[in-house]
Amino acid sequence: MSIFVVDSNFFIQAHRAHYPLDVAVSFWAKVRQLAHDGKIISIDKVKDELYDNNDSLKEWCKANLPDNFFKDTDEVMGSYAQVIGWAVSKSVQYKAAALNEFLDANEADAFIVAYALHDKANRIIVTHEVAAPNAMKKIKIPDACVALNVSYVNTMEMFRQLGESF
Questions:
Q1: pTM
Q2: Which domains does the chain have, with CATH numbers?
Q3: Which residue in 13, 34, 110, 115 has the fewest CB atoms around it within 10 Å?
């Protein structure tokens, strides 16, 4: 069975826009359950992005996600090199700022693609980003996924594939 690797926007957009912690209790209970069942995971770079803000989402993550939820990306450096190689090969298309952001070692996007690429038969990225193959100002996770044959879905598609509801 595939494991879903969630991007930071999975949490951030849910918390800020669609499923506030104080209103959509069943959504967050489902996220907690899926995390504890090992059906969803994330990476250390996403943790850094989430914990950068001292807010209720950070506190929820600390209180509700298992200790092993955020995986170390050190193991995927070979795959990371592939992702970086692809991005650099697109330097004619993307503006320097877009490449610099994607290549920034503190940003999660390239690392989450690398983490899924490292075991692409068993890992699916969950992101709210939408492919924009002609974009110049930002490298989107789905575009890197398409180029590197990595699977990705949005939040609702993940729930459908897992046969979950809340």
A1: 0.96
A2: 3-162 (3.40.50.1010)
A3: 13
